[in-house]
């Protein structure tokens, strides 16, 4: 699609019941205002996640703008979306760094994952999305998303929270209250508000209470003899020392205008294997977002699903090629469209241009990088937990049946392998650990068990073979759909009491408007 939009009506706010379509726009001042809302909506997560991953937030914000423009061009302007920093790689990055990988190794692994996602997008475009759904059914996709989030719990407990536990607790409480009490636009920027609150609280405590004594990663490094050392590792560890919670030294020395720091990637097989599971999460995330946009715009976007997924992969590969953060379509910006009924891609071009300008201000990046660790501790408790529970949301929306051992057992094993960061050392230089190990266990376990199940879909139950328990049999018989739910799929004439009988639906189920969102 050529870059150009029709003016909607008189260019003012659309009347009730009308929407501004992707190929339309309001007057440019109003379009700029909507673009500003998109910037604020994506802003919190787009710079928090690079900080958490140890990447340059300035470069991440700038490349998010570049990736968004590239995305809109690839999909021909049919899928209005903003590409912000992806949270799906946070666990992989933490594992890569824990194994001794540097920032170049991190971005190299992300680049390969981005290319894989782009290739899958091309495959979907020509073959259709059904092949992906068969390889990654909801039970597998939900499990991978869950283990990516919950694998990060030790990062909160061991890195951020100990830096300032009371500021972390206060920031966490503020974030929870904002998420519950605020509505509309303010509710969508809860993380940004919590960050500002924690930042301000830390500055006030520095002025009133004084310095805090805690451990900062990479600082005050001492060896076993208590002597200073240079490279953090098993025999050179960071130790506690008195310091300000907020250090503006880097801010005062940063320029107002300039290019962010860039670097090339480095490729290591062990790091790449840790990053690849995030591709599964991105497939689920992008597919869900495209379907949400299709529902709002009332357009069939299935023909461009492959292009949208591929465009996200290209954006991730491009951003990481210069040292930036991975990208993904943002639900926050979809929320802005739902609230305003303005789906114009012109607003996204405005938001992308603003993000690029922010990325060209090193002083702004230095201010972000100075975020106190205690504040990140409070925020990441919520963020990492939400990432994990998105996996459960996938299960609920697709009604995955965990009474079926084929669904239950691989997920149970994979989640524990990931959360426990269990390592399988295939060779000294080739370990499978945490997220990668858990993902392979879920994916292979599900498909192997599904292939071995009896033709009548029956088999030994986990709790009591062939016995019935509350809610139905342990293993549903007949007509089972892999990865799906069991209720409503029993053999003819063997439906359970109160189920599959006319007029006996369970309360709140199968009624118009009561299904999952």
Radius of gyration, whole Å: 24 Å
Number of helices: 20
Structural class: mainly alpha
Largest sheet: 2 strands, parallel
Task: Give the termini separation.
Answer: 31 Å
Quaternary arrangement of the chains shown?
A: single chain
Taking all residues together, what is the mean pLDDT? 77
Strand order of the largest sheet: 1-2
Spans of at least 5 consecutive residues with low confidence: 458-482, 485-517
Helical residue percent?
Answer: 55-70%
Shape: globular
**Which range does the strand content fall in?**
5-15%
Number of strands: 12
How does this structure look, described?
The strands form six sheets. Strands 1-2 form a two-stranded parallel sheet. A two-stranded antiparallel ribbon has the order 3-8. Strand 11 (about 470) and strand 12 form a beta hairpin. By secondary structure, the protein is mostly helical. Residues about 460-480 and about 485-515 have low confidence and may be disordered. About 55% of the residues lie in helices and about 5% in strands. The two termini are about 30 Å apart.
């Amino acid at each position: 699609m050529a870059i150009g939009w029709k003016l909607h009506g008189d260019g003012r706010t659309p009347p009730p019941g009308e929407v501004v379509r992707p190929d339309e726009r309001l007057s440019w001042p109003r379009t700029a205002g909507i673009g500003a809302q998109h910037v604020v909506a994506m802003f919190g997560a787009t710079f928090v996640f690079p900080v958490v991953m140890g990447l340059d937030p300035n470069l991440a914000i700038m490349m998010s703008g570049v990736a968004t423009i590239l995305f809109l061009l690839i999909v021909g302007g049919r899928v209005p979306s903003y590409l912000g920093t992806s949270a799906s790689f946070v666990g992989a990055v933490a594992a890569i760094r824990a194994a001794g990988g540097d920032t170049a190794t991190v971005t190299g692994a992300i680049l390969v994952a981005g290319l894989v996602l782009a290739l899958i997008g091309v495959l979907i475009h020509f073959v259709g999305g059904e092949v992906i759904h068969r390889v990654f059914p909801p039970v597998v996709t939900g499990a991978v998303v869950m283990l990516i989030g919950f694998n990060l719990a030790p990062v909160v407990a061991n890195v951020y929270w100990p830096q300032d536990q009371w500021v972390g607790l206060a920031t966490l409480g503020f974030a929870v209250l904002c998420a519950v009490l605020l509505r509309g636009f303010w509710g969508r920027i809860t993380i940004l508000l919590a960050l500002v609150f924690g930042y301000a609280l830390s500055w006030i405590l520095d002025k009133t209470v004084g310095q805090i004594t805690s451990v900062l990663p990479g600082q005050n490094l001492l060896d076993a003899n208590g002597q200073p050392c240079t490279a953090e590792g098993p025999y050179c560890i960071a130790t506690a020392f008195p310091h300000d919670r907020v250090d503006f030294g880097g801010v005062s020395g940063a320029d107002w205008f300039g290019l962010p720091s860039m670097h090339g990637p480095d490729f290591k097989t062990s790091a790449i294997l840790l990053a690849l599971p995030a591709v599964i999460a991105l497939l689920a995330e992008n597919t869900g977002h495209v379907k949400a946009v299709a529902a709002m715009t009332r357009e069939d976007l299935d023909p461009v699903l492959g292009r949208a997924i591929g465009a996200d992969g290209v954006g991730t590969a491009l951003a990481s090629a210069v040292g930036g953060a991975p990208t993904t379509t943002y639900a926050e910006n979809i929320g802005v469209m739902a609230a305003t009924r303005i789906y114009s891609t012109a607003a996204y071009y405005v938001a992308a241009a603003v993000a690029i300008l922010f990325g060209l201000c090193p002083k702004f990046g230095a201010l972000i990088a100075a975020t106190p660790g205690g504040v990140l501790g409070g925020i990441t408790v919520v963020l990492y937990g939400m990432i994990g529970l998105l996996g459960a949301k996938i299960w609920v929306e697709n009604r995955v049946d965990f009474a079926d051992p084929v669904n239950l057992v691989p997920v149970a094993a994979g989640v524990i392998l990931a959360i426990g960061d269990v390592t399988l050392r295939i060779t000294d230089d080739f370990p499978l650990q945490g997220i990668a190990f858990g993902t392979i266990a879920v994916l292979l376990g599900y498909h192997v068990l599904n292939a071995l199940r009896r033709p009548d879909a029956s088999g030994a139950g986990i709790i009591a073979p062939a016995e019935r328990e509350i809610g139905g049999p342990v293993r549903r018989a007949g007509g089972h759909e892999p990865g799906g739910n069991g209720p409503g799929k029993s053999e003819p004439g063997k439906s359970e009491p109160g189920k599959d009988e006319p007029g006996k639906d369970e309360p709140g189920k199968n009624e118009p408007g009561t299904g999952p969102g």
